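Repro:
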Amino acid sequence: MPRIARDQKLVESTPQEILAGKIKAGKAVPLLSSVVEHDLILRGQEALVKYCAEKLGYPLADMNDLPRIMQFCSVTRSTTENQICKNYLNAIKNQLCDIAEDDDVSQETLTEIIPQFDQLDFTQMAKILGYPHFDDVQHDPLLLLASLDLPI
């Protein structure tokens, strides 16, 4: 390896560029997690967890630790694991509606989902509200991922 000048970086590419190159070369497989929906639709993991803590009435200062918030709720409210999951899903569906209102989604569309709120899952609700949406379709990460020639 050649000598690297003081003002030169060892690696010229960003981690994102390196990872993208590995994915395109078939040397890495991208995996999607819930963080994708959190970042693309729900304004990020941190905002989501804070929103859940507020909606669930979490009184402590550490509003960034979702497992701790859910554990606190299960202990203080004597709820089952099933009810904790329902509370979380209800919170993210409500946050999605709040975001849609902030984004000026039509009142007609918002009114349409109210009678179905409990029956719709998060994905169905996001689809009705038009999420995720990207102003620049060429940079839509989901479309870019779908266009990759990956083995299924």
